[in-house]
């Protein structure tokens, strides 16, 4: 999640995601995106895979769509808690940089990179997705998972992704998109409801509009996918899944344990999450938590999202685009210097810079409308 710096929308988004950060992290885990299933949800037979497995599957499918087996350096725009960038870095044996406007999520992302043994290979900082603080051509892979919806100016956003991408590089965009063509009044109301619930930016674009924006910067579409019927989001999770089923290991452990032991663990997690809510409200974060309680516990967000999908207004699309090498000769990426010590600050203008044309990266040692 990221948005344009200094705007009222950016401040609202940062307040929401910082306010509910600890609760969402404990409830949903390290990934902040949809879970993808092999078959359409309405045709699934038997018990669905665990929520953690479905989220991991989302990232693995995205990596597969790139057609890449290796990369040098990736940028994850709107990096959440950092899990997507870490997964990409491990799968493609590359360095990773993530940017986000939520200081809480950036702090957690740097901690996750350390926990997963990535060391200096993965760095995360507070920065603006509408103005990434990097020089042209700094990355050979740029990833945006459910971040474009938070960008008020989609044209500028795609321009910035294209700018920081090196010749011959790849962009992966996975996001909620509006349907092509004219929206009915009902469909527009459904999309407006999403903006109110999730602090997204409006100015909804269709997949075709994104593809035209990529084409305007000389990029060609290498792969695309429509995952509309195969996903579940946070809004779909029952309270039982929310409290118990975060990943495959935990799911297996709960199933093998006795009912009293599971009940005790459930109660402990419920008490802990209630404590988080009380502490946040004590610090003056009432509004974000009320949005979460009303949206996820009382089911308002599930109704909002199901209305948008059910009306045909909303789709979930993936686009993989490549920048041609053209007349430029393949050359090493410019070295990248990142000031992670300031990763939780609010001024991202001087966080990082890329210059020169060396082959090695350098990083600090301290630790993501209308048609």
UniProtKB/TrEMBL annotation:
Residues 36-271 form the Polyketide synthase-like methyltransferase domain. Residues 345-359 have a biased composition (Low complexity). It comes from the Eukaryota. Keywords: Alkaloid metabolism, Methyltransferase, S-adenosyl-L-methionine, Transferase. Pfam families: Methyltransf_11. Residues 345-371 are annotated as: Disordered. The keyword S-adenosyl-L-methionine applies. Pathway: Alkaloid biosynthesis. CDD domains: AdoMet_MTases (cd02440). InterPro entries: Erg6_SMT_methyltransf, MeTfrase_dom, Methyltransf_11, SAM-dependent_MTases_sf. One of its GO terms (molecular function) is S-adenosylmethionine-dependent methyltransferase activity. GO terms for biological process: alkaloid metabolic process; methylation. This is Gamma-tocopherol methyltransferase.
């Amino acid at each position: 999640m990221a948005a344009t710096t200094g705007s009222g929308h950016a401040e609202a988004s940062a307040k929401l995601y910082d306010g509910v950060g600890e609760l969402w992290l404990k409830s949903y885990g390290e990934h902040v995106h949809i879970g993808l299933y092999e078959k359409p949800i309405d045709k699934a037979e038997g018990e669905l895979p665990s929520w953690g497995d479905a989220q991991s599957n989302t990232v693995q499918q995205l990596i597969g769509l790139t057609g890449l087996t290796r990369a040098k350096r990736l940028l994850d725009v709107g990096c959440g808690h950092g899990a997507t960038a870490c997964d990409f870095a491990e799968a493609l044996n590359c360095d990773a940089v993530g940017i986000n406007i939520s200081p809480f999520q950036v702090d957690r992302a740097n901690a996750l990179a350390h926990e997963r043994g990535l060391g200096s290979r993965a760095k995360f900082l507070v920065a603006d997705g509408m103005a990434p603080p990097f020089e042209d051509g700094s990355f050979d892979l740029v990833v945006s998972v459910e971040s474009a919806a938070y960008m008020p100016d989609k044209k500028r956003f795609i321009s910035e992704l294209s700018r920081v991408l090196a010749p011959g590089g790849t962009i992966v965009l996975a996001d909620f998109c509006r349907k092509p063509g004219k929206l009915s009044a009902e469909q527009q109301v459904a999309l407006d409801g999403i903006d109110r619930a999730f602090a997204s930016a409006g100015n909804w674009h269709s997949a075709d509009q994104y593809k035209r924006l990529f084409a305007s910067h000389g990029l060609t579409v290498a792969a695309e996918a429509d995952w509309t019927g195969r996903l579940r989001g946070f809004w779909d999770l029952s309270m039982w899944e929310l409290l118990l089923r975060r990943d495959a290991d935990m799911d297996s452990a709960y199933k093998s344990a006795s009912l009293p032991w599971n009940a005790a663990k459930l109660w402990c997690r419920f008490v802990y999450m209630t404590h988080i809510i009380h502490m946040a409200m004590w610090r003056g974060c009432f509004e974000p938590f009320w949005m979460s309680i009303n949206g996820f516990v009382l089911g308002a967000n599930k109704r909002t999202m199901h209305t948008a999908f059910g009306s045909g207004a909303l789709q979930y699309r993936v686009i993989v685009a490549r920048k041609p090498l053209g007349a430029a000769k393949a050359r090493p990426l410019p070295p990248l210097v990142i000031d992670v010590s300031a990763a939780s600050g609010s001024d991202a203008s001087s966080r990082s810079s890329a210059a020169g044309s060396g082959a090695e990266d350098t990083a600090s040692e301290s630790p993501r409308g209308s048609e």
